[in-house]
UniProtKB/TrEMBL annotation:
The active site is at D93 (proton acceptor), D267 (nucleophile). The keyword Cytoplasm does not apply. Pathway: tRNA modification; tRNA-queuosine biosynthesis. It holds the Pfam family TGT. It comes from Litoreibacter ponti. This is Queuine tRNA-ribosyltransferase. Belongs to the queuine tRNA-ribosyltransferase family. Keywords: Glycosyltransferase, Metal-binding, Queuosine biosynthesis, Transferase, tRNA processing, Zinc. Residues 15-368 form the tRNA-guanine(15) transglycosylase-like domain. One of its GO terms (cellular component) is cytosol.
Length: 376
């Protein structure tokens, strides 16, 4: 097994790519979907079950872990992999995005952000240096630069100011990260929906140099059309020989469209969160298990799915345990949803490798357009 962090590109189909990210903790097949393990757990799933769905890597959230149980405590207990019983790669975000969306009384300066915890009101500070320290204490394999991202829509002056601050913070993140063989630091491109700012940001990041690059600041309410518009140029502004990560995306059709536009990595809470609210993602679109049409339906969610939920349980059972608020409801639907996402990624790998992505994407949209099976 490699002792270094490397990215091997195996094949391309138009702008889409398939490859392998090699790390000392294991390979990550790309395009990759990373389930979100916010508080050192993918909610409702055992780590071995997450692996069984086909996940090569998980995402952990710096903001949540620094507040509870704290990065220092996790380090003392042997790091995040050991703490949560996941030996494969982990990517951690920088905490910046969640400070902006969750914390109270935020104050942003050149140095960083001070804020109060949404849990107990205690006062904390995040800066590029502190974010790098926390992610090192956690033992993260892929570390994200500390950045700032304005909510869209924002005016050009605000987007430019924010992007330039993030680029200064990217340089400080690189410096603070230091030399850590086998670990990677990813830069984050900002610039909103402004093509010239995206290019400036990409230039600044390339000059610093990173092991991978994220397209940041999307999936913040701009809509799919605007996001795809940005992805028509943003990924190609980043180095071709490094992984490209679209943060916080997304729905299955967002992922397919982004893979077509050259993205290699994704994370999103959607499959796990939806699993807990009675929503299942299937080849035929979203199924709401709480709907009364399922109450006497003996068929599985998706008869073509090989996950334990679809192999062993009926829609009628899933409807019942959701209505009865039984824990197994969230467990089964989360397992199915994560399995569906990983099967989608596997389908994309195969199609790109075969040079057949356009046909795969046509089939993906056609099956969804058919809609759910007829009620019994
Ligand atoms: Zn299933």
């Amino acid at each position: 097994m490699t002792q270094r962090f490397e990215f091997e590109l195996h094949g391309t189909d138009d702008r889409a790519r398939t490859g392998t990210i090699k790390t000392p903790r294991g390979d990550i097949r790309t395009p990759a979907f990373m389930p979100v393990g916010t508080a050192a757990t993918v909610k409702a799933m055992m780590p071995e079950s997450v692996r069984a769905t086909g996940a090569d890597i998980l995402l952990g959230n710096t903001y949540h872990l620094m507040l509870r149980p704290t990065a220092e405590r996790i380090a003392k207990l042997g790091g995040l992999h050991k703490f949560m019983n996941w030996e494969r790669p982990i990517l951690t975000d920088s905490g910046g995005f969640q400070v902006m969306s969750l914390a109270d009384l935020r104050k942003l300066t050149e140095e960083g952000v001070t804020f109060r915890s949404h849990i107990d009101g205690s006062k904390h500070m995040l800066s590029p240096e502190r974010s790098m320290e926390i992610q090192r204490l956690l033992g993260s394999d892929i570390v994200m630069c500390f950045d700032e991202c304005p909510a869209l829509p924002a005016d050009r002056a605000r987007i430019k100011e924010s992007m330039e601050l993030s680029m200064r913070w990217a340089a400080r993140s690189r410096e603070a990260f230091g030399d850590r063989p086998g670990h990677a630091l990813f830069g984050i491109q900002q610039g909103g929906l402004e093509q010239d700012f995206r290019e400036e940001s990409a230039e600044a990041l390339r000059a610093i140099g990173f092991e991978g690059y994220a397209v940041g600041g999307l999936a913040v309410g701009e809509g799919q059309e605007a996001m795809f518009g940005c992805l028509d140029y943003a990924p190609e502004q980043l180095p071709v020989d490094r992984p490209r990560y679209l943060m916080g995306v997304g729905k299955p059709d967002d992922i397919v469209g982004a893979v077509e536009r050259g993205i290699d990595m994704f994370d999103c809470v959607l499959p796990s969160r939806s699993g807990r609210t009675g929503q299942a993602f299937t080849r035929r679109g979203v199924v709401n298990i709480k709907n009364a049409r399922h109450q006497e339906d003996p068929r599985p969610l998706d008869e073509a799915c090989s996950c334990p939920c679809c192999s062993n349980y009926s829609r009628a059972y899933l409807h019942h345990v959701f209505k009865a608020q039984e824990m197994i409801s969230g467990m089964l639907l989360t397992w199915h949803n994560l399995h569906y996402y990983q099967e989608l990624m596997a389908g994309l790998h195969g199609a790109i490798a075969a040079g057949d992505l356009a046909a795969f994407v046509r089939g993906f949209h056609a099956t969804r357009a058919d809609g759910d099976i007829e009620p019994v």
